[in-house]
Structures are given as structure tokens and as C-alpha cells.
Design goal:
Blueprint (H helix, E strand, L loop, with lengths): L5 H4 L4 H16 L5 E5 L2 E5 L2 H4 L8 E4 L43 E4 L13 E4 L11 E6 L6 E4 L19 H8 L7 E4 L6 H8 L3 E6 L2 H16 L13 H6 L4
Parallel strand pairs: 2-9, 3-4, 3-8, 5-7, 8-9
Antiparallel strand pairs: 1-2, 4-6, 5-6
Helix pairs in contact: 4-5, 5-6
Length: 257
């Protein structure tokens, strides 16, 4: 532990210092992670989610958009901070992860769930992209859920995915879609996204005052997720009540440390 010194840390502020110290603690507890970043009420881990999850505390729900294993990255290019150029990232969707490793006893929403072997569900979520029949890509996307609800449809034109904001990931979901999903998880305080990509689930959690844990293997997307979540905190939703911070002694060091 390093001492907080206003002369040294004053420019960053006490909150940033606390976040950096907590990130060091989490890194020690999770050696499988190549990087750990704490931003507000969000924890981000760069690494293999199956290894990182072994060191994590229990979460309340999973909301994620894993690779489907259908080669969706073929022909799309390089990731940049400006977005919309993904060359060099063509291999990310070649293999689908094994979702049997995940705890399906807690509420879970897996976009692209129709590509995986998952238990039967009556509560599929559908994103209707409002496209004509001749649309060359999928006119809708499906999410598997284990939530006790009838199937639901969310309608949003794919061209307006983020209301004109840059697109950082080939299959990036609209922030509003993830916010809509969180509405079906009203009692879930801590949300896990083990395939965080460019951080859209984390941004939605920030906007709705949820705690977020995100894991991303690719270092470029990991950095973009950190940048987007940090920006979301810089531009908070004034209509959303933000959670009260936990006491530093409990949340940062834990008992007996």
C-alpha cells in the first residue's frame, strides 16, 4: 500500500488514487489478468475470461455478447480510437467459446445465444433491426436468457447503432440495447460481461448506476473499453441516481488486510 500524498496525487484526486490502489490489489488476487483497471464502480480485466473468473467474487447477473464462431470478423479491419476501421482483427470470431463454464443459476443474457448449445428458453430477446427483406445481413439478432419472461422484441434501426457515435467493434451493440436488457435485471447490482469487447455493457451499467465487471482478451479493445467507460463517468446521466461508494476499508483492502 502506498500512502496518499496530496502533493503528489493532488492532480489525480483522491478517488483516482483509491481506484489505482484497488486495481493493484485486484491484480495481486488475479494473476491471470494481464492488466486490471478500476474506473468508478467498474472493474476491467484484460485476459482469458475462463482464467480470470476463477479469481472473481460472485456476481448477480451476466450480460454479454460473446463471439459466435461464424467468422464475422472476416474482411473487417483495424481497431482505432476513431472507430470504424477493424483491419487486423479478422480472427476474433473464428471460434465460439464454451458457455458451459458459466453459472446459469444466476440471471444471464447471452446475445447470439442461438449459435450455442444452451438449455431451452421461453424468454428469448430479439433485436429487430427494422431492415428490408433484401438487407444483406441479419434482419434481427437473438439473445438467450434464463429469465422468467415471455419473449421480448426491441426495435432499433441498425444504422443508428449508437446515435452517430463511432463504432469501435465489428459487432458492437447499441448502448440503448444493453440498457434495455438491464431493465430485465432490476435486482442485479453487479453485472459481469466476460466478453466485454469495446465496453458497451459497461457504459450501459455506468449510465444506469450498476456495478460492472468486464473481461476482455484483446488489448486494443480492452483499452477502448476503459476509455469509453471513463468517458461515460465524465458525462453522467443526471436522471440516474449513482450508487453510494462503499467504505474504503471494506471495499479496498477487505477484512484482515
Amino acid at each position: 500500500m502506498t500512502e496518499y500524498d496530496p502533493k503528489i496525487n493532488g492532480e489525480r484526486g483522491y478517488a483516482e488514487w483509491i481506484a489505482s490502489e484497488r486495481a493493484k490489489l485486484l491484480q495481486d488476487r488475479c494473476p491471470a489478468a494481464k492488466r486490471v483497471v478500476v474506473i468508478g464502480n467498474c472493474e476491467l480485466y484484460q485476459g482469458d475470461c475462463l482464467e480470470v473468473m476463477k479469481a472473481l467474487e460472485p456476481v448477480d447477473a451476466i450480460l454479454t455478447d460473446p463471439p459466435y464462431g461464424i467468422g464475422a470478423g472476416t474482411g473487417i479491419g483495424k481497431v482505432t480510437k476513431e472507430g470504424s476501421d477493424f483491419r487486423g482483427k479478422q480472427q476474433w470470431d473464428n471460434d465460439a467459446p464454451n458457455l458451459s463454464w458459466f453459472d446459469l443459476e444466476i440471471p444471464a443474457i447471452f446475445w447470439g445465444g442461438n449459435y450455442f448449445e444452451l438449455p431451452p428458453s421461453k424468454g428469448y430477446f430479439i433485436w429487430d433491426k427494422i431492415q428490408p427483406e433484401k438487407f444483406s445481413l441479419a434482419m434481427c439478432e437473438m439473445a438467450w436468457t434464463n429469465i422468467d419472461t415471455p419473449a421480448k422484441i426491441w426495435r432499433w434501426k441498425s444504422q443508428s447503432i449508437n446515435s452517430g457515435a463511432p463504432k469501435f467493434h465489428p459487432t458492437q451493440k447499441p448502448i440503448k440495447l444493453m440498457e434495455w436488457c438491464l431493465g430485465f435485471l432490476p435486482d442485479a447490482h453487479t453485472i459481469l460481461d466476460p466478453f466485454a469487447g469495446s465496453g458497451t455493457t459497461g457504459v450501459a451499467c455506468v449510465k444506469l448506476g450498476r456495478r460492472f465487471i468486464g473481461i476482455e482478451l484483446d488489448p486494443d479493445y480492452f483499452q477502448i473499453a476503459c476509455d469509453r467507460i471513463r468517458k461515460a463517468y465524465d458525462q453522467p446521466d443526471m436522471f440516474v441516481e449513482q450508487p453510494e461508494p462503499k467504505p474504503v476499508q471494506d471495499s479496498l483492502w477487505g477484512q484482515g488486510e
